[in-house]
Every structure is written in C-alpha cells, then in structure tokens.
Amino acid sequence: MAIYYDQNIQTFFLEGRNLSYVFGINETNFVEHYYFGARIGRDDLRYALACGGDYAESAVPGLTNSARNSYNNYGAELSTYGSSDYHECSLQIMFPNGSRLNEFLYDSHEILSEKPAITGMPSLSGGETLRLTLKDKNSEVKVNLYYTVYEDVSVICRHMEVTNATAEDLKLLRAYSFTLELPRNNYDVLTLEGAWARERYPERIPMHHGVVSVDSKAGASSGRLNPFMAVLDRNTDEYQGNAIGINLVYSSSYVLKAEVGSKGSSRVMGGINDFDFSWKLAAGETFETPEVVIAFSDNGINAMSQTFHDAYRRYLIQPSYVTAHRPIVINNWEATYFNFNNERLMGIIDVVKDSGIDTFVLDDGWFGARSNDKAGLGDWVVNTDKLHGGLKTIIDYCHNAGLKFGLWFEPEMVNPNSDLYRAHPDWAIHVPGIEPCLGRNQMVLDITREEVRDYIVEAVSKILREHAIDYVKWDFNRVLTENYSLGLPADRQQEFHHRYALGLYDLCERLVNGFPEIFFEGCAGGGGRFDPAMLHYFPQIWTSDDTDAYMRTQIQYGTSICYPLSTMSCHTSICPNHQTGRTTPFATRSDIAHLGATGYELDTKKMTGEEIAEVAGQVKAYHEMEDLVLNGDLYRIENPCESNYFAFVLVAKDKSEAHITAFRTLCRANDEVKRIYPKGLAPNAVYEIRELGIKLTGSTIMQVGLVLPNAPVDFKTFVFHLKKAD
Ligand code: DGJ
Fold first, then answer.
1. What is the predicted pLDDT for the residue at 4?
2. I want to staple 71 with a disulfide (CB 3.0 to 4.6 A). Which of 84, 177, 443, 624 is the partner?
3. Is residue 526 within 6 Å of ligand 1 at its C-beta?
4. Which residues pair with 527 in a beta bridge?
5. Is 446 a catalytic residue?
6. Is 475 marked active-site?
7. CB 387 within 8 A of CB 368
8. Which of these is catalytic: 85, 470, 475, 633?
9. CA torsion sign, 212 to 218 to 220 to 222?
C-alpha cells in the first residue's frame, strides 16, 4: 500500500519507490506539511515542527496564546493569501464582496485505487491516489487536493479541484497545481531555457530570499523556458545529492516559482500562469488544474532524469507506441522547402527506398495556395498544381517503394491569405477593430470555440479518411497574441489561455485518438511545445529546427534532463547546416541523430554516392540500438554545454547490453589523453566491446574508462557497443 493514514497522529504517509511525503492535520485543523524526501519510517514527525523568524507575525484569530499561532509558521499543503501567510500562495479566490480572504481547513479524505482523470486534460495513469478535501473556514468553497504515488517510480503527481458550493459566482485569481514546502533556505534551481533553434539549455542558479520563477505568457509551454524546474541541494551533481524535479503536464501559459522565506525554509509552487488569468467560477461549478509531476532522487540529477523517463514511458505516453519500433523517416523540408512537385519527391523516394528508411514524410506546402509561408494555412485541400494526381499519386509511389507515408499539418493556424480566413475572418484570434500581430505571416485560430474546432477536425479528418496516411506531423509555428475570444463575454476574457489549452487537448482527443492507426509526431517550429501533455498524444516531438550535430548534442543533453530519448525526434541533415552554416562529418550527424527517434531530412540530390551508400549501414546500426533508445536507462557522462566533450551511455534495463556515443567538439593538435568513464554496467559481468575487439568486466570499463583516440577531425563521434559475453 502506497498511502497510509495514521488516525492516532492524524498523519498521512505517501510512499513511492524511494520517496516519502508526509503531512498531517494539525491542532488548528490546518493540513500541515511535515516532510518530502528519501523514504523514511512512519514516525510521528510533529517533534520536528518549529518556528523561526516569525516571532512578530499576525496571529490566526483565536490563537494568540499559542507559540505557533500564525499560518506563516505552518508548512502548507494548500497555501492561500489574506490571513497570516505572507508567502506566495497557490490559490486565491475573490468573493462577490471583493474579499480575497481564503482559509482552508481539513474536511475529509479518501484513498482511491483508480487514479481519476482530469476533465479535458491529459495526466498520468496508474498509482494510488489520495483525495484530500479542504473547506474554506468562512464560505462553502471546497478544494480537493489529489496526490498519486507509485511503487515502482519515485514520483508524486498532484493537482487541485476547486468547487464553488456557494450560491454566488466567484472569481479565481490564481489556481496553481501544488504547493511544496522544503525545510531549508539553501537550494539551487535548475531550469531549461532557450529560444527557437536552441531549445532547453540547462541553467543553474542559487535560490535566494525572495522568488525565483520561470514562466510562459505565450499560450504555449514555449521553447523559451520549459515548464520544468529542479530544486537541488547545493552540492548535488549528476550522480550524488538530492534532486527534486518538477514538470507541469500543461501546454499553455504556466508559471513555476521557488521562494525562500524568512523562517529558514522554502516553498515551491506553480501551475497555470496567473499573470493575465482569472476564471469565473459560477455557483455549483468546479475548476480543475493541470497535473504536476514531482520526481525525487537522492542520487543526483541523472537519477532524477531516469525517474522522469520511467514515469513517462510507463504512465504517460500511449502504451501502444511507447516501446514499439518508430518510423525511420525521410522528411522533405530541408531538401525542398515549399519548392516541390511529384518528380522532386519521387526522386527522394527512389534514392532511399532500399536503405532501410521506412517512411517518407511530406512536409509543409502540399495544400491550398501554399507556395511560400504567406498563404494557404487553414485550407486543407490538396494543391494539385504541385501534386498532379493529388496526394494519391505520391502516396501510391511511396507504398509501392515499400515506404510508409507521412503528412504535415498545422491545424491551429490560418493565413489571412486563405479561403478559410476569407470565409471566417472572425475565427482568427484578434481584438475587434485592432490590427492583429502576424507571426510567420499567420494567425492562430480561436480553438476555444467549438465551431472552429469542429471545422479543423472535419478538414483534417477528411484528408486522413480519404488517403492511406500512416504518419502525421502536427506543427505549431507561432505563439498567441491578442488573447481575446469573440466566443467569451468580457468577464471571461482572462480565461483565454487556459481555454486554448483545453481546446488543443480536445483537438488531440478527436484527431489523434480518432485515428489510432496513424502515428502522430508533435512539432512547434521545432521544440516550442515540448511538454508532457503533448507527449501524452505525440510519443515523439521534433526536438528543434536546429539539426546541426554540435548544437544537437547540447539541445538533446538539456532535453534529456526531463524527457526520455524516445520522445526526441532527431534527423540527420545536409551540410553546411541550414541553421548554423557549420559542416560536420556525415557519420557524426547520424550518430547524434541516433540518440533519439532517428530520421533524415536532406536533399538526396546533394548527397555524395558514398553518403547514400552509408545510409543503409546507419539505419542498420540504429535498428541494433533502437531498443536501448526506447527502453534503456540513460547515463549522461560528459556535458557539451560545459566542455569540449559530450557522452551518453544507454544501458539495457537487464544490463545485458549498452551503447556509448561520445563526441569531441574541437580537435587540438597533440591533445591530452581523454578517457570517458561509463556508468550503469553490471560490475561483475563481462562485456564484449565490438569496436575494440576485447572483453572486459563492467567494473574495469567503469573504473579504468575508455580512451577516445585523438584524430585530427573536429566534431568527431566515437561509438562503442557493449554486449554481455556468454
Ligand atoms: C517548422 C518545423 O519545425 C519544420 O520542421 C517544418 O515542418 C516547418 N515548420 C514547415 O513550415
């Protein structure tokens, strides 16, 4: 049993694989946080409660004689504002008289063996769940806090429901997914920052008195700051120390905050961004927040990453796709951009058809009047000027060549120069009478409106129904502006970004789940919406528009801090690279692309005969390691954001096999010897290292290391396959 309630001490013990989360109902009926961290015994933790720095705080009415007499003294499971807690809070409700005083106390609880779904939003499955009900001391508002724990992974999932059982409408000014109290004031935070074509670079800073936060105000989880934050002990590194990872299962504007207060402790919280947010909660209605996943490791950041990877592979990503062979695609985007016809596409298919590449993906430009990015979005009708005979000709050609066929869509968008816009200008997000911002010459459709979603579902479904399509790439190339819906009354306009997320999930439910035989890949101008909610629908996401092998080592390194390799779509592309102008060896590009769901994205006309011949060998090599990419454990050995080297080690769960890819950025003449020290092998097992033609024990390989030869080549990869010898 993962959840235990001790009635005598009124304490809840939530126990995951290696975590304990403990809280209790205190002397004032307040639900007070006691502990979160590595697994401990089921002891009475009230002995450790203390207050500091708050001597002169305001007292809860009626508690003036008690030492612990202020909400500011308590660690909160649900933090609110208005009484004596001065920290950032996770819930703020405004009552009809304008009061924002919220004080929630214990009401009841239930332990659930089935994890309830969150209405209209994706969440993890499985585990055992505690539903804890709190009630406002001064009104009929109730809050359910949900906690799910798992016996096989050290994560805890949380979300909140607010029910307005009063007779009047209320306004939610803030409704985060969680509050997490931590006992000290000296942590670091690790976040993933970036931009288009350089997404998810790790950034570590010390927490300080006051608030450190990351957020998105863009209506998408965004490539600027991933909805991820880890709180680390100061001495935590990849392989030792406490690491608490926090990741929101959410795709719209979010915030995560870490605050150090005045009493020597810290509080972390977050969820839907309350900047430009409010939600009218009518009498009798319930509001549900998105889920947050909190992962714990006392073995450093790498083990925290492995915990996220296992949790997402087991409980988030569609089970039918998570471990299955992924399509090895060739995508025409960097080869042709918008400039293609049947012959051009057939030329690509002809070159790769016997290479092992198994799927051809036709990217942007096949529909409407789309000869550049200024027109056509929204018109999901085949452009027969470009594709004589329609899509059928190219699909048949593909299938006859033994390849599957994939197609690009950008369902949420419209160009002002499109038939859709001309027919329904009001469907594009804008404020009436004000000229809207264009991003990449396009506007975003108002998918908070049902009629707009119905159009999108029907237009995309028609293409999918009428053609033999095996794979879809779902793109999203600009974020939201104007933030206004013609479908909402004035007092609900600040609900817009959250309603956009709900609209997006509805589209995914109807399109992705409506065509279960089609494999869907996510994309957002590269990795601009790389979040767990999207991973629930798309088992893999185009990691970045930057396909330069050197930058990919950094982008894939940063992304792996939270997300499994199997979720990263990674392509070998042509050089000089279209984003950086850099030239790297063909083998390097493919070795780095193999550390994810691999594929190709290049102009076969510009490939040398040697390169074309190499592709078959590369695909074969990928098949040999694919199971490790999809299901193995990742060990990050060298950090390319901080050094001249990159190295990933992938180890089978049963330790029978491993794959090592190392990379040196720049060669230095007569360089010092470089050894890498793999991890995760069975120390006593003997492994055959194919490339070296030797057998060594796991302990030797890990302790003595592997030498990287010093060849005079920049951007060079070194690959080793290890197999347990019989
Ligand atoms: C952005 C994507 O990331 C690219 O791969 C490509 O699909 C373009 N959009 C097409 O417009």
1. 97
2. 84
3. yes
4. 524
5. no
6. yes
7. no
8. 475
9. negative
Per-residue confidence (pLDDT) for residue 53, from 0 to 100: 61
Burial environment of residue 616 by CB neighbours within 10 A (0 to 12, 13 to 18, 19 or more): middle
Give the DSSP H/E element, type plus range, for residue 522.
strand 519-522
C-beta 376 within 6 A of ligand 1: no
Hey, which of 415, 545, 570 would you mutate to test ligand 1's pocket, going by the most ligand atoms within 8 Å of its Cβ? 545
**Residue pair 512/538 in contact by the 8 Å Cβ criterion:** yes
How many other C-beta atoms are found inside a 10 Å radius of the C-beta of residue 643?
Answer: 12
- How far apart CA 121 and CA 648 sit, in angstroms, is 34
How far is ligand 1, taken at its centre, from the CA of residue 612, in Å?
A: 24
8 A C-beta contact, residue 118 and residue 159: yes
Residue 282 near residue 289 (C-beta atoms within 8 A): no
pLDDT of residue 262: 85
- pLDDT given at position 252: 98
User: Helices in 323-405 by DSSP H: which ranges?
Assistant: 333-336, 342-352, 390-400
- For residue 526, the ligand 1 atom closest to its alpha carbon is 3
pTM for this model (two decimals): 0.98
Tokens 């005079």 found at: 712
From CA 340, how far away is CA 345, in angstroms rounded?
A: 7
pLDDT of res. 100: 96
CA dihedral 247, 253, 259, 265 (to 10 degrees): -40
Catalytic residue among 54, 188, 545, 591: 545
Sheet architecture: strand order including 645-651: 633-638, 645-651, 657-664, 716-724, 686-689, 694-697
Phi/psi at 176 (nearest 5 deg)? -80, 175
The answer to whether residues 518 and 470 touch, using CB atoms and an 8 Å cutoff, is yes
Question: Residue 33: which residues within 8 A CB-CB, separation 6 or more?
Answer: 22, 23, 74, 75, 76, 77, 179, 180, 181
| Intervals of the chain under pLDDT 70 | 52-57, 65
- Residue 358, CA distances (Å) to 404, 468, 572, 599 in order: 6, 15, 15, 9
What pLDDT, on a 0 to 100 scale, did the predictor assign at position 71? 85
> Is the C-beta atom of 546 inside 6 A of ligand 1?
no
| Residues 6 or more apart in contact with residue 356 via CB below 8 angstroms | 328, 615, 616, 619, 620, 623
| Conformation bin of residue 257: beta by default, left when phi > 0, alpha when psi is -120 to 50 | beta
Residue among 269, 174, 175, 255 nearest 218 (CA):
255
Each residue of 54-101: pLDDT tens digit? 555 677 877 776 777 788 888 999 999 988 888 999 999 999 999 999
Helices (H), ranges, 563-608: 586-593
**How confident is the model at residue 61, as a pLDDT?**
78
Residue in this structure with the two tokens 């906690």, named with its chain if needed: 147
Nearest-CA neighbor of 357 among 406, 396, 403, 321?
403
Q: What residue ranges define each of the domains in the chain, with the CATH number in brackets? A: 10-315 (2.70.98.60), 332-529 (3.20.20.70), 645-724 (2.60.40.1180)
